Amino acid sequence: MPHVLINSHHPLPKLQNISYCATNSMATSFSNQITIILFCLLSTIIFNSSSLVMCNSMIIHCDKKDENTLLKFKHEVTDPSGVLSSWSSDEEKDCCQWRGVHCDNITHRVIELHLPCDTIQSDEILDKDNAKPHCLTGEFDMSSLFDLEFLSYLDLSNNDFKTIKYDFNSIHNNKTCNDSSNIHYLDLAYNYHLFSDYNNMLHQISHLFSSLQFLDLSGIDFYKETDWLQSLTSLSSLLELHLDDCSLKDINPSLQYANLTSLKVLSLVSNDFSTILPSWLFNLSHISYIDLSENYLHGQLPQTLPKFHQSIESLCLYTNDLDGPIPDWLGQLDQLKALALSYNNFDGQISTILENLPSLLIELRLHSNFLTGTVSEKNFHLLSKLKNLGLGSEYLVFDFDTKWIPSFQLQILVLENVGPKFPSWIYTQSSLELLFIWNSRVSFEPLGKFWKFAAQLEALALVNNSINADISNVLLDSKVVIMQLNNFRGSVPQVSSKVTFLDLSYNNLSDISPFLCQKMKGKRNLETLFISDNALSGEIPNCLMNWTSLLQVDLRNNNLTGKIPHSIGSLSRLIFFSLEKNKLFGEIPLSLKDCKNLQYLILGGNAFSGTIPSWINQRIKILQLGSNQFSGNIPIEVCQFYSLKILDLSNNKLSGSIPNCLHNMTSMISPYASMDVFKILTRTKYSKRGFSFVYFRVVTKYMVLDFVHSICLVDLSSNEFFGTIPSGLFMLIGLQSLNLSHNQLMGSISQHVSNLTLLESLDLSNNLLSGQIPQSMSGMSFLEVLNLSCNNFEGKIPLGTQLESFTNFSYVGNPKLCGPPLTKLCQQDEKLPNENQKREEDDDDDDSYEVCSWFFMGWELDLPQAFGEYWVLFFSTEKDMVFQIFKYIL
Fold first, then answer.
1. First-to-last CA distance in the chain?
2. Is the peptide bond before 821 cis (omega within 30 degrees of 0)?
3. How confident is the model at residue 48, as a pLDDT?
4. How much is the pTM?
5. Please, which residues have CB within 8 angstroms of residue 45's CB and are 6 or more apart in sequence?
6. Contact 773, 750 (CB under 8 A)
7. Helix 863-875 crosses helix 835-860 at what angle (to 10 degrees)?
8. DSSP letter for each residue of 281-328
9. Three-class DSSP category at 777
């Protein structure tokens, strides 16, 4: 469900490093500088201005050693957009004036490097497998930076570095009296591809930078770092640690104490912790900020008072699986200003909890738990400083006095299951910026008053409410508008130039033309347009040239007809485009070629025809063109789609052979491809990391599933392909689902099929394949769905736990196959068959013909729908898969 995140990041003040080692050289340099400056001042006063020119040449500028070190760093890295263009040995420009370089005002030695990459102003997708074309990349040698002996601050965040190198001999030679670098501030966050040329990157960092006070490595994949906490305990001076989105798994729950005695800020958001809360966390005596949100932590909060009770200011544990009562000791946290426990399973009486909270609270989020009781104005008499409030659950009752005017002025308000009356006190909140009401049966009457109030908001979210109103004449004026599942009807409402994000999915809106062709004062800034799952009908008007700012367009599951308008080519910034399951026809317009940033093209379930264009953007990640009327061959250019994760060309009229170059789709070669999450940049002040999730729908394992996490899938089923299965397919080791069924493919299955170790679903049914089933398939341990039916396979079904776990429906329609799970015995296993055995074998032959005919008919009817539960019953050993339909981060 949607939820609101507030970024409470408190950066450490920039620190200047003056170590004992540096004292003598700095003192000498300082003395020389003072002497020269005094001499210049006297000369200028006594003589003339020409003396000043002479003096300028005498003043010590950037240290030559530092300059050479920086130039070496520049030479090592790749700089596609010229970020370091000012870094040159030009005598007219001192290295202290180079971009990102900060020097000490007295010694002119380099003390800080600020080189983060700015992706906020770009149209890039921020998922882990996508390059950032304008950011610094390549590798850099950390040992070379040790030559910057006074460097205390290093920020290389949000770039695209691949490798950190360490030359330990060089490092030790460069150190004079310290065992590690003088760097106090290190930020390498969101270099998604970064890894060390040594194992245990965290251990190396803690060894080399033992003086660190600030460390941010968020977004770097540490899934192999099983002992990450132990690696960091040597950082005794560490004040602030950020390891968000790092795929960490082990949080050492039984460890009583962690040697992080100075730590004040700990952020471990969005990892894979699935244990109870760790004991060491509550024994950190100086911690002021804790955020372990968006994990899988379970169990209860401790009932005894934590050691951080005198220091903690912010405790964020939202979106976990925590349960039990909210402990009374929260009332003893005198410094607590932020408490976020939403999206858990906490229980207890809400009135007791609210009246026990400390009066300094600014942020309180308790919604989406199992709290009970009644919420009224009486519960808030001590909470006058609130700015951010989230309340509500299925079991809470709101009972506010209609004349109540709160003592607080909120900026953010989240209410769940509110009603039946709209709380009138909300209209007194003149500072409100974000309002989120969901799962409520609340009357917004009079609607005019509500829409007028909503115009002041920066963000408005109304989700799954029973509003049932015509919004044709409403003008939306908030920067972010999310209004899903409200039964809104009429035309799509107009928006002001202020709106950047508009989601009206899952309503009953019928006409999009007035919206797309509306006139507007000022520049249009809309970047996201989601109106899926409505009742939109008619043609898409040729007015898209009015919306050149769009990044995402989702109009799937409507009743739109006609062709894609040629004005689609005006959307040069477009990244995501979905028209799935409408009634559109015609060819894909050539103007779509001008959408050079397009990476998600989802047009399945229409009546598009013609050939598949060869000019589709090589950066495409999802290409879903299934269930249309495309004909011709697969263009060879498909092999150049190096970022492709999903290729769905199923249920068309395509023919020819399958290209043998599909192994060039390199993003499917990585065994870690499925760990990625598709994210698209959104700009709102409430974004924690600046993106929203993309969800996509695929048919795999004979089910229609919605995914947020990446899945590598190739589906070429129900076409007219012939020839053999190309060997290149078996090089795509990241592939999880492969469907080549209902074609005319011949030949045998290569032994190399076992390279697809992550494959979960394999369907080769209804082809002309022959030969034996490779024994190597028995080692494909992730395989959950297998269908080899209705071919000409022969011989014994290989033995092995995996292959023997499937039913006979995986193999029927192959008269020459034998062995379990089929009842037909192989010749080497046969004894004299009795009449029952013969009868069973005859029945198998009859069943094979019927089943193959049945499969073919079912596929023509849209198989998952035609066979429903029966199909799943025999063909799926489905695990509990996690899939979501849109999860918003505001």
1. 12
2. yes
3. 56
4. 0.82
5. none
6. no
7. 150
8. GGG-SS--EEE--SS--EE---SSPPTTTTT--EEE--SSEEEEEPPG
9. helix
